[in-house]
Amino acid sequence: MTTTVPVLEAKDLTKRFFGALALDGASFSLAGGEIHALIGENGAGKSTFIKVLAGVYDLDGGEILLDGEPVDPRQQALPIAFVHQDLALVDDLSVGENIALVAGYPRRRGLIDWSAVMAQAKRIYGIMQVEPIDPNRLVVTLSTPEKAILGIVRALAHTPRVLVLDEPTASLPEHDAVNLFEAMRRLKAAGTSIIYVSHRLNELFGLADRVTVFRDGRHVHTAPIAETAPERLVAEMLGRAVELARQRPANVARREPVIAVEDLVVERRGPISFSASAGEILGLVGLRGGGQEAIGRCIFGAKRADAGRIHLDGRELAPDGGIAARIEAGIVLLAGDRTQESAFSGMSLTENLFVNPRLGHGTPWRLYSPAAERRRARQLLETFDVRPRNETSLIDWLSGGNQQKICMARWLEAKARVVILEEPTAGVDIGAKLSIHAMLRRAASDGAAVIVVSSDLDEVAALATRALIIDRGRVASELSGAEITMDELVARSSLGASRSTATASTERRP
Ligand code: ADP
Ligand code: MG
Fold first, then answer.
1. At what angle do helices 95-103 and 114-127 cross, to 10 degrees?
2. Strand partners, 471
3. What angle do CA 317, 320, 322 make, to 5 degrees?
4. How far apart are CA 241 and CA 350, in angstroms?
5. Whose CA is nearest to atom 16 of ligand 1?
6. 46 CB near ligand 1 (under 6 Å)
7. Ligand located closest to 16 CA
8. Cα of 43 to ligand 1 centre, how many Å?
9. 205, 209, 287, 473: least buried by Cβ within 10 Å?
10. Is the pLDDT of residue 414 over 90?
11. 272: pLDDT strictly greater than 70
12. Alpha helices in 14-87 (DSSP H)
């Protein structure tokens, strides 16, 4: 920190979304040549702040200064490079073109020089010292970590004065994260100031110079990181002191596992081993991009494992049987993106309930008479409290919560052995949320192993009988029974398993 005037300063920023305050007088100050970590719970306003800096949103109040001069990111191009949380890559363009969108298209005699576009891509990957991806590949074909790396290297195309990274390591395998930290240190040495938004407190120690905590759209804490204990940061994030439970040995009596995964590696992350028994509701939680969703999809057969085995009732499942074989074996998944993947738009509630001919206790689909089907549909609408209770109406007319009940009824009706749900109550109202939780508890007590992949920590605290905190495709920590509280889940998903893992290959301050 050589200068006294901050490179970038934000004062009293206010941003409202439909009346709700995402930023409520937030301030932030970035010194020259520092790596400044910005942390806070989900919804604290970090991404909104970044998007205001990027000129994506206009402000309802406050001001932004660059080298002490007021600036308007909506009106002027600032010397700031961004890696947004949602990456903002263009799926239908190639890797080389996505880089060229930021770095510029090299031209020769007025025409785009494609071989130079490709050479540029290779050079830029070199900055992070990672293996370049074939610049001709379409972004849509990249894996999640490959996209994350592309989003990052693209921002490094020009050495920016200020670099802003919003949770870039969430979906990065550990060795790539370490490469990123090295690239950040080199940029810092070259004079770039960096704002680094992260949920992983561990990785900040040894990387960041200072840390700022946002809570509820406000600035609550800034300090040199070397003088700050991780527990203090968690307390600032939550707004209260937390007493963390000791990790007790899980002495809860458990039945034979229904589903067991062993050394599973998915999307290059892992390995992970865990099991779930009949009657359990197992929460898989973690940071966004932590890999928990891919694990659920792999068990369901929708994603191939890179390595590892999956056992159902003690028998190993064929690794490439696909979804159909898994459903037949009794493993079902309710995808998070309901409108895209679960609800069959344009079809009636009855059709949505009985859409899969493989279901129905081994009874072939064709043996259902329309009248019997209608009767059964009415019963299900009743049992699962679907409103309105008209089996012939189109699913499109139902509220999100009621659509979700239909999709769940479809699987629960099939008496699946393993029910995997992604974000089961995202975007549904509180009444539907309670009914859905009741459905899941009933499915568990009826003998299913229920696996809930959720980033809603309140939901996991309320619902799960056991929770695994997943980080980079591995179990960072495990909680069971009364240990599963909001505070524990927040703390553990921020602190990770042991403080040594994330910093092992990076220098630590004394
Ligand atoms: P963070 O990045 O710290 O998790 P965000 O900045 O994404 O937090 O969100 C802050 C608050 O603003 C949250 O309550 C979020 O729901 C809300 N919010 C963010 N973006 C939008 C948007 N485009 N429209 C409406 N509300 C939003
Ligand atoms: Mg965010």
1. 80
2. 474
3. 90
4. 51
5. 43
6. yes
7. 1
8. 5
9. 209
10. no
11. yes
12. 46-53
Q: Measure 197 CA to ligand 2 centroid, in angstroms.
A: 8
- Tokens at 505, concatenated: 């290959």
- Ligand 1 touching residue 40 (CB < 6 A): yes
Type and span of the H or E element at 116: helix 114-127
Closest ligand to the CA of 38: 1
- Of 162, 163, 130, the C-alpha closest to 148 is 130
Name the pTM for this structure.
Answer: 0.63
Cβ 367 vs Cβ 375: under 8 Å: no
Cα dist from 169 to 45, 173, 334, 474, 490, whole Å: 19, 8, 27, 15, 18
Q: Are 32 and 1 in contact (CB under 8 A)?
A: yes
Token pair belonging to 478 = 């495990």
Measuring from atom 23 of ligand 1, which residue has the nearest CA? 17
Q: Which ligand has an atom closest to residue 49 CA?
A: 1
Ligand 1 in contact with 45 (CB < 6 A)? yes
Measured distance CA(402)–CA(384) in Å, rounded: 9
CB-CB contact of 354 with 441 (8 Å): no
For residue 51, give the ligand 1 atom closest to its CA.
6
Yes or no: say if 349 and 415 are a contact pair by the CB < 8 Å rule. Answer: no
Question: Which residue's CA is minimally distant from atom 21 of ligand 1?
Answer: 17
Residue nearest to atom 20 of ligand 1 (CA): 48
Alpha helices in 190-264 (DSSP H): 201-204, 230-238
Residues with CB under 5 Å of ion ligand 2 are: 46-47, 85
Q: Determine whether the shortest distance from the Cβ of 455 to ligand 1 is under 6 A.
A: no
| Alpha carbon distance 254, 380 (integer Å) | 31
User: Which segments within 411-491 are labelled E, that is strand?
Assistant: 418-422, 449-453, 466-471, 474-480
22 CB near ligand 1 (under 6 Å): yes
Which of 61-70, 289-298, 332-341 has maximum average pLDDT?
61-70
Band (pLDDT 50/70/90 cuts) for residue 25 is very high
Cα 484–chain centre separation: 20
Residue 333: which region, alpha, beta or left (left: phi > 0; alpha: psi -120 to 50)? beta
Ligand 1 atom with the smallest distance to the CA of 42 is 4
Range 458-468 average pLDDT: 90
Ligand located closest to 215 CA: 1
Q: 484: which 2 tokens?
A: 């599963």
Note if the bond before 388 is cis, omega within 30 degrees.
Answer: yes
* Mutate-to-test residue for ligand 1 from 18, 39, 47, 85, highest number of ligand atoms within 8 A of CB: 47
Residue 283 contacts residue 492 (beta carbons within 8 Å): no
